[in-house]
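Summary for the funding panel

The consortium committed to producing paired sequence-structure records for every protein in the target list. Below we show the first two records in order, beginning with the earlier of the two.
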Amino acid sequence: MKFRLFIFLYLFCVAIQSQEKEDERLLTQLSSFLSKSYYSINLGGIFYNYGNHNLPEDYSSSSVSRNFFSGRLLLGHKLNENLAVQFGVMRPAAWFKYDNINNIGYFRSVWVNVWSLSLKKNFTIDDKWSLYGELGWANVARVGFSIDDTEIYSDAHFGEIITAFGLQYKLSDKWRLSLNGTYIPKSDTHNQPAISQASLGFEYHLQQKSKEKALKQAANPYFFPRNIIQISYGNGGIGYGVNRFFGMSTKVGNFESFGIPIFWVGDVKAQHSFSITYQRTAYRSRKLFSLDWGASITGFQSELGKTNVFAFSVFPVLRFYLWRNNTFDLYTNYSIIGPTYLTKSDIDGFISGPKITYQDTMGLGVFLGKTRKYNFELRIMHYSNGNIFNRNAGVAVPIQFTLGKTF
């Protein structure tokens, strides 16, 4: 619970601090909080010693399938030049699989996700090279499997120490290349082998502009809304084709994985949904990009059990402008990991997870009119906890039709 509360407060503080600028023209300048932040993407091999020793005595697998390719994504905030706090996730590209259990054709996967909160300490070698050490807490969530209603490998959810070390090369004030090693010790209590990862990656550090440069960049004819209020409605009768396409789960003939893997679907389906959303611009580029923060209240009714659920969310929004002309501005937006409180858990018999979860949205919209006072948007939504917990069936909200007003 403390971990979830920290993430909620972290993002909420970013949102509040992003509104501190009194001069609207300085939206082209980062807030003091964001100017000390960075993100890191690392790709490499993940290793864990799953085997027959993890299965009950009466069960064994003739072989296993291992996909070692994995990734680790981190968001960091610098407390000082050499000390930072990091929040991140590590997972394989494909789950570990036991093949042909007991030689009768059972194939079962073990899912493991690791979310972490840690401190990173840099040790400078010279003006280009540095070493770092990382120490923190890992949230390990494992989904096991059953055969014929008999639990063979149990689910698990526990906290463990995470350590990492690495070598970094500074390309510029913004970019650093990294060689990394990450380790989580085994847990005999939870029948979980140790997890280790070796990876290559980079860090991108946000940089503050001078006030003069920010004001010069702000002097342009392009519209960016300061505030938006929106009302949305969706109905499951329209189907979940868009959700499935962007979740790469559209069925085309015998092919069941057609689409683009950039969003999620969910086992719980929302038959009706209604949202009220407020968004405020925190940062913008000269023409093509803005970072917004928002809050929303969404009510939806589940498709199967007709269960009524309310969701209260705060979230970041990445907005990319695709086409600007004299009468409208066309954009797409993407929001991820918006801390959310649901009034129901485990909806309609699906193990959708606890009431504390995340909201993700993706949309395509326009600002209309000479002064861009009006807004129309098509949006899909998703609620899940990102496998922080082993209960994570997720909720899919199909296309919402959205009307908005800027001010």
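The next record, for a separate protein in the list, is shown here:
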Amino acid sequence: MGLEEKVPEGILTTSLDSVINWGRANSTWPLLFGLACCAMEMIATGTARHDIARYGSELFRASPRQADLMIVSGRVSNKMAPVIKRIYDQMLAPKWVIAMGICASAGGPFNNYAIIQGVDKIIPVDVYVPGCPPRPESLLYAMDLLRAKQGRESVGEWRKVEEPLAVDEIMPLGV
């Protein structure tokens, strides 16, 4: 007698990690955080043509305590870096970051003292989206990559507390 005959029809067996990761991947709530021209493309993903609602992400949150995804879209200045770090620290775990555009990923054409050369100098980035500005389809593809990453995570992994770096340890303030 096989397992199929012992288990009644309509019963589903799975692991706790699979169920939690499925829920996370289908209800990622992004933080409304546009810094420059890439923000227009990020906003366009919420329109009916691109439909970010397929990921359960149609409502961009304004509070870091309600969001689990930060999409940094645009250039990051030295004055904005402490704000980004503080908002990231206020987000509840598990949390993810997408660097949208070449400015957020590597500083873009702004190679000077006022612009951080990549937001990954301040906070950890999960997915990079290239382009200047990247199309909404690129952001949706990044969401697909993030969903794949979320599907591989374990419940026990994200509970590990990392010691956050202060912004002034990365770059001295008042320079």
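Regarding this second record: Confidence is low (pLDDT under 50) at residues 163-175. Strands lie at 30-31, 69-73, 96-100, 127-129.
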